[in-house]
Write a structure and sequence with these properties.
The protein has about 350 residues and is an alpha+beta fold. Helix content is about 20%, strand content about 40%. Strands 1, 2, 3, 4, 5, 6, 7, 13, 14, 17, 18, 19 and 20 form a 13-stranded mixed sheet that branches. The chain starts with 6 loop residues before the first strand and ends with a helix.
């Protein structure tokens, strides 16, 4: 029997709440997913916050607590029986912004920092990622989608931390950040294993230059691979065109990152646990004492749902396989191999 008493501390504008909420639901995800906090109060609750007011949330499961959200009120809905407040953070602001900007001689990290700066969003640690001769951030995508795109080329993920800052790390899924135990924290788990017939991913740019800062990076090439092309597209070999990647190294890294994510998705699933406030997108977990056949990990978490209601406090998470196949050293090794073949 679980005797722990979950609790919360919620700040809405100039008010602080530790009770009265009928429910709290917090969804966290890596870009292009947008984090979303929803709080439901009884209609008589004296909620004075307005749209744009600051919001922060701390969750406590009775053993440990963590700040889990920092953002602003996006909407307030009042009905005859309740008040529903929704809030977004930096990801939501970037998802509202459709830029029209061109950057020259930048890295993926520079693009992320500039887009965040345009939206008045703070940043934390940002992986530099691929080098780009230029990058066009046009209005066909939101800024958050552009950020997810350049992170995909670099093998990183974009997320918003508990302080409301955007960060873009390359996840090392070889060493767990924490352990959960079936029968203690873990309530349920399901895992699906998918066939992975594709053996290689090739990304093709436009110039195949050696240096993103050289004049050659701006010239089109009819032979991106300089006479040494990898296997042609087939059932086991997949190609993708990315004109913005104008160096062999950048294209190789994007291909290696795609293959790394593809392999990681060969086993993926979801679990539910008693409230675990420290879990966020990119957290690496090990699950102990599972029946044979279920994945103990390491697993890396892609999206999280924390919820507090009258019937209890739970955390649900979607995971992908971790381990050696999701080691950044493996990404760099694959990159060196691909570049060496060009």
């Amino acid at each position: 029997m679980n005797m722990l008493q979950p609790s919360y501390t919620l700040t809405l504008g100039n008010q602080q709440w530790t009770n009265q909420a009928l429910s709290i639901d917090l969804e966290l995800g890596a870009a292009p997913l947008v984090d979303r906090l929803e709080i439901r109060f009884p209609f008589a609750a004296p909620v004075s916050a307005g749209t744009g007011d600051k919001v922060s949330l701390n969750l406590n499961n009775g053993e440990k607590s963590a700040d889990v959200f920092s953002g602003t009120v996006a909407s307030i809905r009042r009905t005859l029986d309740q008040i529903r407040v929704t809030a977004i953070n930096a990801g939501g602001l970037l998802a509202q912004y459709r830029p029209a900007a061109t950057y020259e001689s930048v890295t993926a990290g520079t693009v992320i920092r500039n887009l965040c700066g345009d939206a008045n969003v703070d940043v934390a640690a940002i992986e530099d990622g691929v080098s780009l001769a230029f990058f066009v951030a046009d209005g066909s995508r939101t800024a958050w989608e552009h950020i997810a795109r350049v992170c995909g080329w670099s093998g990183s993920i974009a997320r918003v931390n508990s302080d409301g800052e955007v960060e873009a790390p390359v996840i090392d899924a070889t060493t767990p950040d924490l352990a959960l135990r079936y029968g203690r924290e873990l309530l349920a788990i399901g895992n699906t294993e998918f066939a992975r017939p594709v053996e290689s991913f090739t990304v093709v740019g436009e110039s195949g230059a050696d240096d993103a800062g050289s004049d050659d990076a701006f010239r089109l090439s009819t032979d991106f691979f300089k006479g040494n092309a990898p296997d042609a597209p087939s059932l086991t070999s997949r190609w993708r065109a990315e004109p913005a990647l104008r160096t062999a190294e950048g294209a190789a890294r994007a291909g290696a990152a795609t293959q790394r994510l593809y392999k990681s998705g060969g086993q993926r699933g979801a679990f539910e646990a008693f409230l675990q406030p420290e879990l966020r997108p990119g957290t690496i977990v090990q699950i102990q004492d599972l029946p044979s056949g279920l994945p103990g990990g390491p697993l890396w978490l892609h999206s999280i749902h924390h919820r507090l209601r009258a019937d209890g406090a739970r955390t649900a998470a979607r995971f992908y396989q971790g381990g050696d196949s999701f080691n950044p050293a493996g990404l760099l090794g694959a990159l060196a191999s691909l570049v060496g073949g060009l």
